[in-house]
Design goal:
This protein has 483 residues and is an alpha+beta fold. It has 10 helices and 23 strands. Among the domains are: 117 residues, Uridine Diphospho-n-acetylenolpyruvylglucosamine Reductase, domain 3 (2-Layer Sandwich), CATH 3.30.465; 95 residues, Alpha-Beta Complex (Uridine Diphospho-n-acetylenolpyruvylglucosamine Reductase, domain 1).
C-alpha cells in the first residue's frame, strides 16, 4: 500500500485519523479516465509547492480530531461558477482576468481595483502654458496657473437609476411629503456623467439626469425639480458648453423624441427644442425654402440657438423665427423674438426655462440654389474650423469695439500669439484661434485658464476686453474671465 494511504473499514467504526505528517486531504476523482484511485489536491502555484516526495511545506498541523460528517442539508445555489476540476498544473491561460502570483490585483480575494479607485490614486499634474513655437523647441512653460489634472470626483464615470438611488435619504434625493417618500419620475438617473454630452469632453456628473420626449414628460420633470428646489440645466449638442469639473448640483435635461423632431407645414418648419439646427437647414433646402441657410454651420440644437441668438455667415435668427414655446414649472407660454429680447449672442431666457418648440417662417426659393448656398457654407467652415477632434467654439464673442478695426475675436487672438497656446490639456486650435481643443486629458479648469490667458494677451496688446461666448453649466470660477 502506498505511503500515507489507508483503507476504510467495512465495520461500523469511526473514521480513522490521518497517519504520518497529516498530508493534504485526498479528494475523490470524478474523472475516472486515469484510474479509480485517489489523488491529493494540488496547492496554488504561488505558494505551498510541496516537497519532492509528495509532502507539503511544514506548517502548523491540523488538530487531532475526527473527520466531519457530510451535511444533511442540500447544497445552496452557487454564487459563482468554478472549474469542474483542477487543471493539470501550471497557469491556466484562459483565466486571464484573475490575478496570478505577484499581480497587482491587491490582497487575496480581490480581482483588481475598480477603475474609479485607480483613477483617484493618480498623481495630479500641473497645468502649463506653452506657445506653439515653444512646444516645438521643447522650451520651458511661459506661465504656470497651477491648475490640477482631471478632477477626481468620487462619482465620476458612473451613474445609477434613480429608483435605486432614491431609496437613500441623501441631499437631492427623495424627500418626504405628507409622511411618504416621493421618488423621482421614471427614467431619472443619478450621478450621470455629463462629459460624454459635450464635444470638448470635460466636466463632472449631474446629480440627476433625464430625457424628455414630450411636453407632458417635460412638464412633469420640471414640476419634480421645483418640489425639490433643484436647479435645472439643459444640454443640447454640447458644442459650445463647459461642464464644471465638480459636475452640476441639480437636474439636467436632454430633449429627444417628439421634442427633437422637424415637421414642415407649408413655408413653416415646426421644430422641437432638441432638433439639430443643421438638419433643419438641410430640410429647408430640400423643400425649396430659404432663410435658414446659416444654421448649417451652427452645430447646436434649435433650443440652444434661440437661447444664444445664434447667427453666422450673415444670417439672422430673429428674421425667420416666428415663435417659441418656453416651458417652466407649472406653465408653458409662447414668445416672439421681441419677447425674447434678442441682443448679440444672447436672449432674456432665464435659468430653468426650456425652449420646447420653435416655428420658423421661411420664403420660397429654388431648391438647387439653396443647396448650392449650403455647400458653399460647409466648405467655408471646413476650411476655417477644426473638425474630427474634441473641441468647442466659438470661445469669445466678436467684439463691438472700434479698436478692433473690424477684426473678429479669432483674428485678435491670433495676432496676440494665442494660436496653438496650451494650458494643461487644453489649447487654442492651430486652425482657428477662437476654438479650444482637448489635446489630451483636459479639465474644465484647464479650459478656463487658457481662456483667461488668451483674454489677457488681447487686452494687453489691443486694450480690448473679450467676452466669453461659451455656456457654462455648474459652479465654475470664472473670475479670471471678468478681471
Amino acid at each position: 500500500m502506498p505511503r500515507g494511504r489507508c483503507r476504510a473499514r467495512r465495520s461500523g467504526g469511526s473514521a480513522r485519523e490521518l497517519p504520518g505528517r497529516r498530508k493534504e486531504v485526498r479528494a475523490p476523482r470524478h474523472d475516472r479516465r486515469r484510474g479509480g484511485g485517489v489523488r491529493r489536491l494540488r496547492p496554488p502555484s504561488d505558494r505551498g509547492q510541496g516537497e519532492h516526495r509528495g509532502g507539503s511545506h511544514a506548517r502548523p498541523g491540523a488538530p487531532d480530531r475526527l473527520l466531519p460528517a457530510p451535511s444533511l442539508l442540500p447544497h445552496g445555489a452557487p454564487c459563482a461558477r468554478v472549474r469542474r476540476r483542477a487543471g493539470a498544473g501550471g497557469r491556466d491561460l484562459r483565466a486571464r482576468r484573475l490575478p496570478g502570483a505577484g499581480a497587482r490585483g491587491g490582497p487575496p480575494g480581490r480581482v483588481g481595483l475598480a477603475r474609479g479607485h485607480r483613477r483617484r490614486g493618480r498623481l495630479r499634474r500641473a497645468a502649463r502654458v506653452l506657445d506653439a513655437d515653444d512646444r516645438r523647441r521643447g522650451a520651458a512653460p511661459v506661465l504656470d496657473p497651477a491648475r490640477g489634472g482631471r478632477a477626481a470626483h468620487a462619482r465620476r464615470g458612473r451613474h445609477r437609476p434613480a429608483g435605486r438611488a432614491a431609496r437613500g435619504a441623501g441631499a437631492g434625493g427623495a424627500r418626504r411629503r405628507g409622511g411618504a417618500v416621493t421618488s423621482p419620475p421614471e427614467g431619472v438617473e443619478q450621478d450621470y456623467p455629463l462629459q460624454r454630452l459635450t464635444t470638448i469632453r470635460t466636466g463632472g456628473p449631474a446629480d440627476w439626469f433625464a430625457r424628455a420626449g414630450s411636453s407632458e414628460r417635460l412638464a412633469g420633470l420640471l414640476d419634480w425639480a421645483r418640489e425639490r428646489s433643484l436647479a435645472v440645466g439643459v444640454v443640447g449638442s454640447g458644442s459650445n458648453l463647459l461642464i464644471a469639473d465638480e459636475g452640476f448640483r441639480g437636474l439636467v435635461l436632454k430633449l429627444d423624441d417628439d421634442l427633437a423632431t422637424i415637421v414642415p407645414e407649408g413655408r413653416r418648419l415646426l421644430c422641437g427644442g432638441g432638433a439639430r439646427l443643421p438638419q433643419a437647414s438641410a430640410m429647408a433646402a430640400r423643400l425649396g425654402l430659404t432663410g435658414l441657410e446659416f444654421g448649417v454651420n451652427i452645430p447646436g440644437t434649435v433650443g440652444g440657438a434661440v437661447k444664444m441668438n445664434a447667427n453666422a455667415y450673415g444670417g439672422d435668427l430673429s428674421r425667420v423665427l416666428e415663435w417659441v414655446e418656453v416651458a417652466r414649472p407649472g406653465e408653458v407660454d409662447r414668445r416672439t423674438p421681441v419677447d425674447l429680447g434678442f441682443q448679440y449672442r444672447r436672449s432674456n431666457l432665464e435659468p430653468g426655462e426650456v425652449v420646447a418648440r420653435a416655428s420658423f417662417l421661411l420664403a420660397d426659393a429654388e431648391p438647387a440654389d439653396v443647396k448650392r448656398t449650403l455647400a458653399d457654407m460647409r466648405s467655408q467652415r471646413k476650411a476655417a474650423q477644426p473638425s474630427g477632434i474634441k473641441t468647442f467654439g466659438s470661445t469669445f464673442k466678436n467684439p463691438d469695439d472700434p479698436r478692433a478695426e473690424g477684426r473678429s475675436a479669432g483674428q485678435l487672438l491670433d495676432a496676440a500669439g494665442c494660436r496653438g497656446l496650451t494650458v494643461g490639456g487644453a489649447r487654442f486650435s492651430e486652425k482657428h484661434a477662437n476654438f479650444v481643443e482637448n489635446a489630451g486629458r483636459a479639465t474644465t479648469a484647464d479650459v478656463i485658464a487658457l481662456m483667461a490667458e488668451g483674454r489677457r494677451r488681447v487686452r494687453e496688446r489691443f486694450g480690448i476686453e473679450l467676452e466669453p461666448e461659451v455656456q457654462i453649466l455648474g459652479e465654475v470660477d470664472t473670475s479670471e474671465l471678468r478681471s
